Amino acid sequence: MGALFSFGAVVVLLLIPAIGAGALKMHSLFGVVIPYLAVVIFLGGLIYRVVGWGKVPVPFKIPTTCGQQKSLPWIKHSKLESPATSWEVAARMFLEVVLFRSLFRNLRTEKTPADRVVYASSKWLWLGGIAFHYSFLIVFIRHLRFFKHPTPKFVSIIESFDGFLQIGSPHLFVTGLVLFGAAFYLFLRRVFVPAVRYISLPADYFPLFLIMAIAGTGMLMRYFWKVDIIKVKELTLGLATFNPTVPDGIGVIFYIHLFLVSALFAYFPFSKLVHLGGVFLSPTRNLANNSRMVYHPNPWNYPVKVHTYEEYEEEFRDKMIAVGIPVEKEPPKEEEEKAETEETEGKE
Amino acid sequence: MPTFTRTMGLRGLLKENRERILNNWFEAIINTYPEETVKFLKNTKDKFHNPVGQTIKEGIEGILNELIGEGETDKITPFLDRIIRVRAIQDFTPSEAVAFIFKLKEIVRAELNSQALQNEELRWFDNKIDELALKTFDIYMSCREKIYELRATELRNWTYKLLERANLLAEGEDNFKIK
Amino acid sequence: MSKQAKPPKPDELAKSIDYKPPKTNWMETPVEFKPGTYCYGARPKYLEAVEMPNPREWSPADEDWKLPENWKEIVLEGMQDRLGKYRSYKLFMDICVRCGACADKCHFFIGSGDPKNMPVLRAELMRSVYRKYFTTGGKFFGKAAGARELTEDVIKEWWYYYYQCTECRRCSVFCPYGIDTAEITIMGRELTNLLGLQTDWIGGPVANCYHKGNHLGLEPHTIQSNIEMMCDDIEEITGIRIEPTFNRKGAEILFVTPSGDLFGLPGVYTCMGYLMLFHELGLDYTWSTYASEGGNFGFFTSNEMAKKLHYKIYAEAKRLGVKWILGGECGHMWRLVHQYLNTWWGPPDFLEVPKSPITGTVFEHAKSTKMVHVAEFTADLIRHGKIKLDPSRNDHLKVTFHDSCNTSRGMGIFEEPRYVLKHVVNHFYEMPENTIREKTFCCGSGSGLNAGENMELRMRGGFPRANAVRYVNEKYGVNMLANICAIDRAALTTLMQYWVPEVDVCGLHELVGNALVMTGEKKRTMDLRLEPLPGVEEEEEEE
Q1: Do the Cβ atoms of C418 and C453 come closer than 8 Å?
Q2: Which of C166, C198, C230 is the last residue of a domain?
Q3: What confidence score (pLDDT) does residue B89 get?
Q4: How far is B44 from chain A (nearest CA, A)?
Q5: Looking at residue A114, what is its pLDDT?
Q6: Are C181 and C239 within one domain?
Q7: Domain co-membership, A273 together with A315
Q8: What tens digit of pLDDT does each residue of C415-425 get?
Q9: Which of A97, A231, A252, C485 has the greatest number of C-beta atoms within 10 Å?
Q10: pLDDT value, residue C25
């Protein structure tokens, strides 16, 4: 149900540029205005979201400790799992962001008594996640060639690695396929693992379909319905240098691809995709486990009503005196004696 | 219980079809859990990560092995206990919790239907399952009673020293009065 | 019975009673309150005692929860307020991608199979409401954006499932963004508490602790006499009379421990261990009857209540003029001492950086909070050879160690207790790797769920733990489950009686007390439980 809804939404997104740029020839709108708008929304939205989180205070230092705390000098401290300094926190965050360490943790736990790794799906989730994110990153970097002239060196190097199979002309880029495949895997997982299907929302399927559509149109354009790459670069360089031009005769498939990318950019900040920015702010990961060493202030720490010792003693003074517990305020002499005798009588 | 001597027929067939019977039986029990959970209970092999699924699996294996062997109720009881102990504290009515033992009847019938079996053997098998079913009721009840007992014991443990003290004081007062 | 040979039909009975949940989307499946899975509603007197809203007689099984007229407004305002105060709350509402990595990490899900016990779904119960009222997408697209209306049924669902989470943080270990369901449960409880939806088992200890200083409401003379009774037992065992002091000004150290160890079994034996150790060291320390609770059920209520209850520790340290504070074995107490106390009431500059008077070790890692965990303290003593131990007195025990959730994932104290344990017992066996340390399984009764009426729930939640204990019991003959948490001591005892009755439960310092060779003691023939020490009698007979 959620998947169908999302699929429908992506189909609509496909049709808009097909009609708008294809049939109605609104090339400036789809080639310039919408991409600019999307980037503005993306940047503005992302900043808005991150600043929005950043403005909310972190009242308590609550790292999830996954290893030995720093305590006595002769006890081996787990610097990555229980970081005590900013550098150690940075290292923990680095591994988290770059290697998806927490997700990887699943691997080690899944062993039978015979030490055979069996719970494959966890491993697949980590692998699928890694494949998806890294291929996305490389695809993104590869596209920089369209926005910078001459093409930066590192982009060319990455491209040559990506096309290492040297199949077809132009050379097949592995990452495009991997991106599509990984997104498809993540989609299948949502459909076929009942527990994951149960928790999945339209908002989970939509970005997957959208990304599959982007990868799909990209590959179609590169390998099958080829477009005039010179003219495309003319357009994209124009965008990058704020000197937009719309050359004639670029195939409609390009406008579809560009529109879908714009849709992704605009959708990004307001969806679960912002986890990209959020992960850096997560208080269970980005704080040091040194809360007994370093005082952590809470900006909204307000005074609360408490039950003071004086009130406590007021209530229990007689009982305390009777059993010899020291008190702050001795009762008046006469009463004290009286109280004592009473208590002794009662006690014996 | 009536004592029927078993021929090699039933035993042999159970042994031959062991894997399939176990699979079907396991499936039937696991399918009593919510759909979203079934896959986890079925596929997670790590017994520490999936104690419910693995306990059931080990339990039914034990039961079937014993049935293939001597079929002594006393030896089967610990395996029944393991399974029921889990189901007795989950979201099942009493009948739902113990129904799994009847499933075996159904599954074995389906498996062995085509095979020629003597009535006597089938009757022995039916009687055996009925006997085990009665046992499961006993175990189920003992698990439930245990739960109630634990509530009481825990409350007493929580306040142990207070109670002890109260008793001492009471004794003291009694002595005083007698004097 | 007929003798005919007709093959019987498949068993109709078994077929007809298949348990299958209704096939509705989770948002449309209201919660059913089944006995054994929920705690009783708090009695009004407990709420009144600490001025909490909407005190009344109520039961979760009732149709009408007698919510205040404007309950919806209260909850939404409460959410708004907290979204602006806790980055964890706001962020965890926004960034979950529902990857499902956490789904099978929760002990309640593993033990019950209820899909709403998957951490991600537990959080979605609240996220769906958050989207409806606090995000543009949710406002416009409603269900398509995963949003839903806040109704009384939703409140009931929240209540049911936020009191089926022990705030153990196991899910947060596996989450790629570190989303901690405990943070969301904490908010769920804060919000429902605004409507007076407290449990009796939490409400009582909170009221008691506020007025009398500890969860059970022990008055000063009772605390003193309870501890004196323990001293009687110690005298019987060792021949040594211990005279602890109470509320003594000028002591060097204030000792604070959960009150569960002052009266409950088997906690008292742990407490006896402390008393013996401190006496043997000649430690200049005092107990306090006012700050007589290390634990804090307020934390299972609201941040504000937790802060109120934990005021007493520093206040008492200041009044008595001690130099630093030593804390006993407790789970959530140490989560709070480690991560919250200093922020609430510190920094306590009137105290000194903790320094062991016996070894001279300065506890640099506690230099701001000024509180040291007793396992750290004892590990340091053993390291410096300052106490004499005879681990053979524990030879009848084969011990395994349960890492408590709070001290594991909210503090990171793993090695200290193991170091102590290995010096006081000869037979120590770890449970399987994926059930200990940061991946430890909860006792199923933490965060105020250790009541009696929800026993089935507790047995479910504790099953993964018990299952691992059963494994070491069968493999190595383990018969003692040691831990450093007062709730564990009580709850695991019950858990073991149901799942692995061969295994008993004890605190770390009970084993220390048994092994501790005290100056001038008589020959030990009993352990701290006043049970004869196996081996000793035989020896005597031989002599």
Answers
A1: no
A2: C198
A3: 94
A4: 6
A5: 46
A6: no
A7: no
A8: 999 999 999 99
A9: C485
A10: 80
User: Which backbone phi and psi does B44 adopt, to 5 degrees?
Assistant: -80, 110
Residues in chain C, pLDDT under 50: 1-22, 543
Cβ within 8 Å of C, B 3-62: 31-37, 40-41, 44, 46-52, 55
Residues C186 and C217 in one domain: no
**pLDDT for residue A345:** 46
Q: Tell me, what's the ipTM?
A: 0.91
Which residues share a beta bridge with C371? C325
Chain B residue with Cα closest to A191: B36
Chosen from A115, A116, A118 to mutate, greatest number of chain B CBs within 10 A: A118
Residue type, B56: I
* Mutation for C interface: A282, A310, A329, A343, most C CBs within 10 A: A282
Place of tokens 């909407």: C54
* Neighboring chain A residues of B51 at a CB cutoff of 8 Å: none
H or E stretch covering C270: helix C267-281
3-class DSSP string for A85-106: CHHHHHHHHHHHHHHCHHHHHH
In degrees rounded to 5, what are phi and psi of residue A14? -70, -40
- Whether chain C has a CB inside 8 Å of the CB on B65: the answer is no
The model's pTM: 0.90
Closest-CA distance of chain B to residue C518, Å: 25
Number of domains observed in the structure of chain A: 2
A273 and A326 in a single domain? The answer is: no
The answer as to whether A304 is a domain residue is no
Which has the higher per-residue pLDDT, A121 or A101? A101
On whether both A137 and A255 belong to a single domain, the answer is: yes
Range of the domain at A120: 2-281
**Candidate CATH numbers 1.10.490, 1.10.287, 3.90.25, 3.40.1130; the one for domain B8-144:** 1.10.490
Are C416 and C314 part of one and the same domain? yes
**pLDDT tens column, B65-88:** 999 888 888 999 999 999 999 999
Q: Which of B56, B91, B143, B151 to mutate to test the interface with C (most CBs of C within 10 A)?
A: B91
Q: Of all residues in chain A, what percent carry a pLDDT higher than 70?
A: 90
- pLDDT (0 to 100) of residue A119: 42
pLDDT tens column, C28-73 = 888 889 889 999 999 999 999 999 999 999 999 999 999 999 999 9
Q: What is the average pLDDT value for chain A, to the nearest integer?
A: 88
Alpha helices in chain A (DSSP H): 2-17, 27-28, 34-55, 86-99, 101-109, 120-142, 153-162, 174-192, 194-199, 202-219, 229-240, 252-267, 275-278, 309-322, 333-347
The CATH number for A161's domain is 1.20.950.20
Distances (CA, A) of C477 to C390, C398, C400, C491: 22, 7, 10, 21
Q: Which residues from A are below 8 Å from B35, CB to CB?
A: 194
Mean per-residue pLDDT of chain B: 83
Contact C356, C381 (CB under 8 A): yes
C346 vs A contacts (CB less than 8 Å) = 295
**pLDDT reported for residue A335:** 53
Same domain for C208 and C194? no
pLDDT at B8: 54
- Chain B residues within 8 A of A111 when measuring between CB atoms: 46
Shared domain for C191 and C223, answered yes or no, is no
The total number of structural domains in chain C stands at 2
Q: Is residue A303 part of a domain?
A: no
Produce one character per residue of A51-86: b if its CB has 16 or more CB atoms within 10 Å, e if not: eebeebebbbbbbbbbbbbbbbeebebbbebbbbee
* C320 or A101, greater pLDDT: C320
Q: Is the domain of C221 the same as that of C189?
A: no
More confident: A292 or B1: A292
- Chain B: residue whose CA lies nearest to A200: B36
Q: Do A275 and A313 sit in the same domain of this protein?
A: no
Q: How confident is the model over B83-114, as pLDDT tens digits?
A: 999 999 998 999 999 999 999 988 988 877 65
- Segment holding C285, helix H or strand E: strand C285-287
Q: Residue C509 sits in which domain range? A: 204-515
Determine the residue of chain C that is closest to A108 in CA distance.
C434
Cα four-point dihedral sign C350, C352, C354, C355: negative
